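Recall the central idea of this unit: under ordinary conditions, the amino acid sequence of a chain determines the structure it adopts. In this exercise we apply that idea directly, starting from the sequence alone.
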Amino acid sequence: MSIERVVLAVAGFMILLTLGLGVAGSPIFHNENWLWLTAFVGANLLQSAFTGFCPMATILKKFGKQPGPAF
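Accordingly, the structure predicted from this sequence is:
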């Protein structure tokens, strides 16, 4: 699995998890402040689309993960 796929999979998982934890109608609701993490992940995805810089991709490169064409 390339760095891009790992980044997208983790970002998608984090968004779904934090929405579940932060939305009051969810069966796993914990606290509305989880939505701040959702916003952070979304903002990071947006800025990486324009700048090409992704902190998680940098960390995965250091762990020896093979990069694909985007990162």
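The longest helix spans residues 3-22.
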